[in-house]
Amino acid sequence: NVGGASGPLYGFGFIKMASAVNDEIDHDNLKEVLKAFADGIQQRGKVELNEKTMYDVIERAREAVEKNETVDLDKLQSFANETKNMVATKGRASYFNEASKGYIDPGAQSSVYILNALIGADEA
């Protein structure tokens, strides 16, 4: 059970990822998988970058892999840390307006763990 919108968003993103691969996620299809995941989250959540959401981590990870950068736990965590200085405009955190600043977005933090399990330290 995942509270709020995270469950449906991750579920939709996972379905989109699954449709991007035939069998396994590997070095060759990782870019496609991450694009499908990011696009699914953006579509379902109606989000853009810098709105203090899980998409901030997922899209930045996708961009880094697209540029053939190494994406490890530290890099993923740096993406989540960037949400600390943002004001939430989506989800429950948006109820706090300016008071949401100074805290890492929970969806962004959970995305760190999911993406690290998926791609941690893999270079595209």
What does this protein look like?
This protein is mainly alpha-helical and 124 residues long. It has a single domain (6-123), classed as Serine Threonine Protein Phosphatase 5, Tetratricopeptide repeat (Alpha Horseshoe), CATH 1.25.40.340. It is 54% helix and 3% strand. It is built from five helices and two strands, in the order H-H-H-E-H-H-E. The chain has a two-stranded antiparallel sheet. Helix 1 runs antiparallel to helix 2 (30-45), helix 3 crosses helix 4 (73-82) and helix 3 packs parallel to helix 5. The longest helix has 16 residues, at 30-45. The protein is globular, with a radius of gyration of 14 Å.
3D shape:
globular
Largest sheet: 2 strands, antiparallel
Strand order of the largest sheet: 1-2
Structural class: mainly alpha
Unreliably modeled segments = none
The CATH class label is: Mainly Alpha
Topology:
Blueprint: H1 6-19, H2 30-45, H3 54-66, E1 70-71, H4 73-82, H5 106-119, E2 122-123
Antiparallel strand pairs: 1-2
Helix pairs in contact: 1-2, 2-3, 3-4, 3-5, 4-5
Domain DhaL: 1-120
InterPro entries: DhaK_L_YcgS (IPR012737), DhaL_dom (IPR004007), DhaL_dom_sf (IPR036117), Dihydroxyacetone_Kinase (IPR050861)
Protein name: Dihydroxyacetone kinase subunit DhaL
Essential attributes:
two-stranded antiparallel sheet; DhaK_L_YcgS; Serine Threonine Protein Phosphatase 5, Tetratricopeptide repeat; DhaL_dom_sf; 5 helices; 124 residues; mainly alpha; 54% helix; 2 strands; DhaL_dom; kinase activity; kinase
Q: What's this, in brief?
A:
The chain contains five helices and two strands, in the order αααβααβ. It is mainly α and 124 residues long.
